[in-house]
Write a structure and sequence with these properties.
The protein is an alpha+beta fold and about 90 residues long. It contains two helices and five strands, in the order H-E-E-H-E-E-E. It has one domain: 2-Layer Sandwich (Alpha-Beta Plaits), CATH 3.30.70.330. About 15% of the residues lie in helices and about 35% in strands. Strands 1-2-5-4-3 form a five-stranded antiparallel beta sheet. The protein is globular and about 35 Å long. The relative contact order is 0.23. This is RRM domain-containing protein.
Length: about 90
């Protein structure tokens, strides 16, 4: 099994070029506690999240980022400040 070496800190630094990152949420497997490769970045400002969408399709630590806006189960009047992404 390949374990991706990115940390919350390295992900935060990578996305921080678009604006202040509040937190990075790593999605992990419940049994192994290993990252699944699907993570979330929360920005201080929603505009930063919008600009960070430009990272979609770019390389990070030799992996390709798939960056999308977070899916929400509630109605939001304004764009959200949270992005989800996959490392493929």
């Amino acid at each position: 099994m390949f374990i991706f070496a990115a940390t919350k800190d390295s992900l935060s630094r990578h996305f921080n070029e678009f604006g202040e990152v509040v937190k990075v949420i790593r999605v992990t497997d419940a049994a192994t506690r290993q990252p699944k490769g699907s993570d979330y970045v929360e920005f201080m400002r929603k505009e930063a999240a919008g600009h960070a969408l430009s990272l979609d399709g770019t390389s990070f630590m030799s992996r390709i980022l798939k960056v999308v806006k977070r899916n929400s189960t509630r109605q939001e009047a304004a764009p959200c400040n949270i992005l989800g992404f996959l490392l493929i």
